[in-house]
Amino acid sequence: MEVSRVDFKKWMRQVKEIFSRFHLPQLKTPAAKAIYVAAVAAIFTFLGCWAVLAYQDTPAPTVRSMGDEKFAIKAAQGGIAEVKLGELAQEKAQNEAVRKFGQRMVEEHTKTNHRLKEAALKEKISLPKEMDKKDQATYDALAKLSGAEFDKAYVRDMVQDHQDDIAEFGTEARTGQREEIKTFAAETLPTLKEHLKAAKDMRVAIMKPAVTSDSKTPNKATAKQSGTR
After folding, report:
1. For residue 33, what pLDDT band results from cuts at 50, 70 and 90?
2. Tens digits of residue pLDDT in 47-101
3. Distance between CA atoms of 170 and 167, rounded to whole angstroms?
4. pTM beyond 0.70
5. How far, rounded to the nearest angstrom, does the alpha carbon of residue 64 sit from its chain's CA centroid?
6. Considering only CA atoms, which of 78, 79, 83, 68 is closest in space to residue 183?
7. 72-88 in b/e burial notation, b at 16+ Cβ within 10 A?
């Protein structure tokens, strides 16, 4: 049986009114008084237990976690930034590997953004259409660079950004409350890990000093000098 708090309180008032109308019997012996008290106690104990069980049967209102919505909004802003920065890399990068990585970011994060929109629509979450102020500042700073300077700064940002994303997506995949958003996070994690590995490999490659023909071939004069005592 289900009963609301309002109905239960109203019912208890009616019970009290009914009991107040009864005239207490003249209890002359201790045994009679004990029996009367025990009976009243049993009745109210039964009513109390029934009320607790009835209240527990009443379904609790659904509480939706705000954490899922905040995650979805931040993920949308980050996804937009990845696409914009990838486009910038294709334009500004000097290293061919960096340009190709930027192209990959545009293609794969565009698909990820689309999946997030579908999940958010099912969960009735409104997503932003622009990157946040922090990512905008990063974009503006990178836009002022070019060539090797841009390559190093962009790759460094991609490593840090994907490390942060993996941590946030992992938390949502484990603790999320809204099924669509939680599933989106879990399914996107492998892609983010691949991006991080690619960014780290690229960072190592572009940070290596260039090997020239001069550095490979030892100077003949120096070799002669080193052999002469």
Report:
1. low
2. 565 554 554 544 444 444 459 999 999 999 999 999 999 999 999 999 999 999 9
3. 5
4. no
5. 14
6. 68
7. bbbbbbbbbbbbbbbeb
CA distance 83 to 103: 9
Contacts for 178-183 with beta carbons within 8 Å, 24 or more apart? 178/64, 178/65, 178/68, 178/69, 178/123, 178/125, 180/119, 180/120, 180/122, 180/123, 181/68, 181/71, 181/72, 181/119, 181/120, 181/123, 181/125, 182/68, 183/119
Three-state SS for 93?
strand
Cα 175 to Cα 161: distance, rounded to the nearest angstrom: 21
* CB atoms inside a 10 Å sphere around CB 103: 14
Rg (CA), the chain: 35
pLDDT computed for residue 1 by the predictor: 43
Residue 31 CB contacts under 8 Å (≥ 6 apart), including other chains: none
The span from the CA of 7 to the CA of 17, in Å, is 16
Of 25, 46, 44, residue with least CA distance to 36: 25
Distances (CA, A) of 220 to 43, 52, 177, 212, 229: 110, 96, 71, 16, 16
Q: For 156, list phi and psi in degrees, rounded to 5.
A: -60, -40
pLDDT band for 208, please (50, 70, 90 cuts). confident
Q: Which of 169, 157, 150 is nearest to 82 (CA)?
A: 157
